[in-house]
Specification:
The chain is largely without helices or strands. It is built from one helix and no strands. Helix content is 8%, strand content 0%.
Length: 62
């Protein structure tokens, strides 16, 4: 008798959460890829060090 095939679960994996700037270093390697690349990358300007909501190019001021 063979084991049943492994099924991928829906949703984002729990251990891949990106840590915030105030949380300090990642515990357990959840954000290793971001740390290797120098930090988070902005989705608008593609620069490292900030994300799209805090981007200086973002003109949407609340």
């Amino acid at each position: 008798i063979r084991e049943p095939p492994i099924q991928n679960r829906k949703g984002r994996p729990r251990n891949k959460r990106l840590t915030g700037a105030l949380e300090g270093p990642a515990q357990g390697g959840g954000a290793r890829a971001a740390a290797r690349n120098g930090g988070r990358k902005c989705g608008l300007c593609r620069e490292v060090g900030h994300t799209a909501p805090r981007c200086p190019l973002n003109q949407n001021i609340p």
